[in-house]
Specification:
Blueprint (H helix, E strand, L loop, with lengths): L18 E8 L6 E7 L4 E8 L6 E2 L2 H4 L6 E2 L5 H7 L4 E2 L16 E7 L6 E15 L6 E11 L14 E4 L7 H9 L4 E5 L8 E6 L5 E2 L2 E2 L3 E6 L10 E2 L2 E2 L3 E2 L3 E4 L2 E2 L4 H4 L11 E3 L6 E3 L1 H17 L4 E2 L8 E3 L16 E4 L6 E4 L1 H4 E3 L5 E4 L1 E3 L11 E3 L1 H4 L3 E5 L4 E4 L16
Parallel strand pairs: 3-10, 4-9, 21-30, 22-29
Antiparallel strand pairs: 1-2, 1-8, 1-12, 2-3, 2-8, 4-10, 5-8, 6-7, 7-8, 8-9, 11-12, 11-31, 13-14, 15-18, 15-32, 16-17, 18-21, 19-20, 19-25, 22-30, 23-24, 24-28, 25-26, 27-28, 31-32
Length: 429
Amino acid sequence: MLLSSYNSNAQTTPPKPQSFIFPIKKDAKTNQYYTTIQIGSKATTLDVVIDLGGKFLYFYSGDYSNATSSYRPIPCGTRKCRTVVDTDGCVVFCNTSPGPAPGCTNNTCADYALNPFTGTQGYNGLGEDALRVRSTRGSRRYYTVNNFPFQYSDPVLKDELASSTSGVIGLGRSKISLPAQLSSAFKIRRKFGLCVPSSGGGNGNMIVGETTYYKISNKSLISTTTPLLRNHGSKYNNGRLGNLTVEYFIGVRSIKVGSKTLSLNKTMLSIDESNDGSGGTSIQTVRPYTTLQRPLYRALVKEFVKAARAKNITRVKSVAPFGACFDSKSVIVSSKTGPQVPTIDFVMQKKSVYWRFYGSNSMVRVASKDVICLAFVEGEINIAGPTTSIEVGGYQMENYLLEFDLASSKFGFSSSLLLHDTTCSKFLS
């Protein structure tokens, strides 16, 4: 297919785009999800890890810094600086050439960037450059955002990122995240969808903009919605916009294994609004598996093991980091949704609103071919800020269509695409 390219200097006016598409790939070694962007005067192609709760784009790449001539730093004290970082951060002096250069320019608006895998934070200047993006409909034309803000970061922030990637792209509720910037530049709905692929399953998709065309047999796949919640607590100081976190929270009120509702400390399921914002449930692409704090996790494991035993599924020695593992030969695997094990439901505002995980998203095969484990892990206490009780991880998102509608503050999701005889790698917008 021939793709037409448009930018602000084009002689003809392109049709107004409604949404933009980006591939989602999974790195088999790290279980990280990443996408591909084109940035700079020569449209340098970079792979960047997707951080659903991230504030902005940062990267470090010689391929970019040696090729671009359109980079411009954002000066300190300007209205744009105050808009994009919501602080008074400033890089006052750099040992560099007089002209603007990615990474270190005098009197540049600055902010902290977070490596979500190591917890390392880097403080550096912010700049702008052209970001090339592709629309979803018609001939899938290319468009250009001429002043896309980002940070050319310290190389230490690449530690533990997938080896093919140069940085991290944030999708969080900030003013300079990818969804916010595309919404502002093209006056499209503040909304984006994710369809995260499984290992070895090809690419998934990220759609920024109007996503109501996700259909099979003329029926929308988004079957369930629940409110997106705001939380004033943030695990790191740079994860805020004003006094609110940029992460996405949903209101899980109970958990079921099969037909059994777990007996849980309900205060852990709620966000502590009166104190530090601990508790609650966030959604995190940078967590490979869903984490639950110890009391919740132990209750889940206990009931799942009990329900598995009732199905004559044999428990075996656990394999770290998983707390419950089973002999795969004792599990029936004939279902289109993977191993036939007890379902797990995250129940939200009412009993009829739940996110159901089948065996394909609740069980993972480990080193031994004969062992599969419950793909939920115990969460760690956060020493840098409030501790979130549940963090829904990437493995549980795979082959579901997820929709973040910021305009209406709703989170929508499909049933498992496997039930529709498709996957994120086969399903196209």
